[in-house]
Amino acid sequence: MRRALELAALGSGQVSPNPMVGCVLVHQNKIIGEGWHKKYGDWHAEVNAVNAVDDKALLRESTAYVTLEPCSHFGKTPPCADLLIKHQLKKAVICNVDSNPLVGGKGIQKLQQAGIDIQTGVLEKEGRELNKRFFTYMEQKRPYIILKWAQTADGLVAREDYSSKWISNSISRTLVHSWRASEDAIMVGTQTALYDNPQLTVRDWSGTDPVRIVIDKSLRLPSSLHMFDKKVLTLCYNTLKTERQDNLEFIKLADSPLFLEEIIQDLYARKIQSVIIEGGSKLLNSFIELRLWDEARVFKSSQVFSKGIAAPLLQSQLHYIQAIQDDTLFIYKNPLL
Questions:
Q1: Which domains does the chain have, with CATH numbers?
Q2: In this structure, are residues 3 and 24 in contact, taking their beta carbons and an 8 Å threshold?
Q3: Which residues carry out catalysis?
Q4: Fewest CB atoms within 10 A around its CB: which of 86, 178, 297, 333?
């Protein structure tokens, strides 16, 4: 199952809104085939694993180790449960039961009715961590929300004039680009868009650009900003107009205390399973105050500004810490979830 999870992770950034899935086929304690879901719309892990088996006759006496319950419905591809039944596998060991109501135990039931022995819950915690975006989306009806910022040793995210380049080092910034390639969307507030003029694309890493999201309630941001270059699908949430221009979409919402929650619900409706909130401090604090976040990734630099914009205030249990040259990365998880 650990091997199946390793394979599943290879689909990171490529399969959303599907989950990452890996499959290992074992005959008499020997792996005879393995596969993973490589890209949304392409064959699922079970199909790729079966196709990798040279002698299909061995499948009748084989066990499939799958990280997620085999699907039982027709989507972009036929049901994987039917494929395992067709080849009369002896047993299926499953890491996680699918939270998608289209599957939700139906795949397991189908396999059992066909006489296939089932075991579930193997490395279940690791499987849920791998597919935390998918499970959050299915179970909480919203994207997985990651807060991210870099702060100085004296707790500041920008100077008084809002300039901040660069607080973290080049290795940390490369890591951030790898994160962008793994998430569906990336969000900034008005001030960050205006003063930093970020591109919010994947440049120091190989991968797909996330959907860009900017909050500009009164539509005061200039059209010359990178955010509005139409090179990447960009959503601009405001209170004035709804309009579509090629890769740029303006979405009007009511100017109410529920503005952020309505953005998150709109992203859910668009099947966006994860979003990184990259600033600024006001926007990050708003998500923290609403307790509307799952994970926070904070870089702390050795730099000192003395005066400037204070970093967000986060009181949460530390989950992980890592030194990255002269930076330190702190990762927090929301204890209320």
A1: 2-135 (3.40.140.10), 143-333 (3.40.430.10)
A2: yes
A3: 46
A4: 86
